[in-house]
TrEMBL record:
InterPro entries in alphabetical order: GPCR_Rhodpsn (IPR000276), GPCR_Rhodpsn_7TM (IPR017452), Olfact_rcpt (IPR000725), Olfactory_Receptors (IPR050427)
UniProt entry keywords in alphabetical sequence: Cell membrane, G-protein coupled receptor, Membrane, Olfaction, Receptor, Sensory transduction, Transducer, Transmembrane, Transmembrane helix
Recorded coiled-coil stretches: none
The species this protein was found in: Erinaceus europaeus (Western European hedgehog)
Protein's UniProt name: Olfactory receptor
A Pfam family: 7tm_4
Length: 310
């Protein structure tokens, strides 16, 4: 690795170089990150402690919140700290680590969303066989496959990054390390690496999005045979999932399915799916889900009663 690279550190330009705007970035995204941690922590604790949230849907929601938390943590803390620094730098090894963790938890979120769509399909289209098909053993195996698949995807990103020689310049026009902005710094022909990037990250985003939207079309079409009450409940759940899918996959497809060219809007679009979506997900899944809200109220009430007895 060191034989190919003369660069040992990279300079991250961040979202802005203006001192006043950097303070705004610091305060805004600190609040975003704290909100993400709080919202997802509440979901994790609620699902783990509640007896009423034991269905496969909430098992997958637990892992979605976990991946959201880790996904945001792979980017936000450094971004927030870098906003206070005049010249933000990141070592080559730290850059590699960030690429791995960012793609690992981002890909894990994609796979979990697919599992949640599959769960809804079985629950709505095959309700009598739901608990047989989506038993705990099957759910554990599916989640394990998602974790392994995410690891394979991230290792592919690392392999592509390590195949690039860097001999200067070392300025990354972004607020985190990713393979795409690094392609602009490589002192070699990056056509094949970019092609592999599109066929890897781009294909995962595009194919997964098409699969998810197709599955929800089938689900929504099958709801015509359900009762009005059942149709309303299923619609509420599916619409929540569709909102999450569109918000997450739209920016990802824009970034990863095109050649390694940069646009002024790229960094703001990246903010949306790296920090915005992990913050919005808990709000969508709690505000639009009566069972989760009731479980949170019971947890809060139980804690208050326990505190009063003390």
């Amino acid at each position: 690795m060191q034989l190919k690279n003369n660069v040992t550190t990279f300079i991250l330009l961040g979202l802005t170089q203006d001192p006043l705007k950097k303070k705004i970035v610091f305060s805004t995204f600190l609040l975003f990150y704290l909100g993400t941690l709080l919202g997802n922590f509440l979901i994790l604790v609620t699902i783990k402690t509640s007896r009423t949230l034991g269905s496969p849907m909430y098992f997958f929601l637990f892992h979605l919140s976990l991946s959201d938390t880790c996904f945001s943590t792979s980017i936000a803390p450094r971004m927030i700290v870098d906003a206070l620094i005049k010249n933000a730098t990141i070592s080559f090894n730290e850059c590699i680590t960030q690429i791995f963790s960012f793609h690992f938890f981002g890909c894990l979120e994609i796979f979990i969303l697919i599992l949640m769509a599959a769960d809804r399909y079985v629950a709505i289209c095959k309700p009598l066989h739901y608990m047989t098909i989506m038993n705990r053993r099957v759910c554990n195996v599916l989640v394990a496959i998602a974790w392994v698949g995410s690891c394979i995807h991230s290792l592919a990103q690392i392999f592509l990054t390590l195949s690039l020689p860097f001999c200067g310049p070392n300025i990354i026009d972004h607020y985190f390390c990713d393979l795409q902005p690094l392609l602009n710094l490589a002192c070699a022909d990056t056509y094949m690496v970019n092609l592999l990037l599109v066929s890897n990250s781009g294909a995962i985003c595009s194919i997964s999005f098409v699969m998810l939207m197709f599955s929800y079309v089938i689900i929504l079409h099958s709801l015509r045979n359900h009762s009005a009450e059942g149709r309303k409940k299923a619609l509420s759940t599916c619409i929540s999932h569709i909102i999450v899918v569109i918000m997450f996959f739209g920016p990802c497809i824009f970034i990863y399915t095109r050649p390694a060219t940069t646009f002024p809007m790229d960094k703001m679009i990246a903010v949306f799916y790296t920090l915005g979506t992990p913050l919005i997900n808990p709000l969508i899944y709690t505000l639009r889900n009566a069972e989760v809200k009731n479980a949170m109220k019971k947890l809060w009430t139980r804690n208050l009663i326990t505190d009063d007895k003390k």
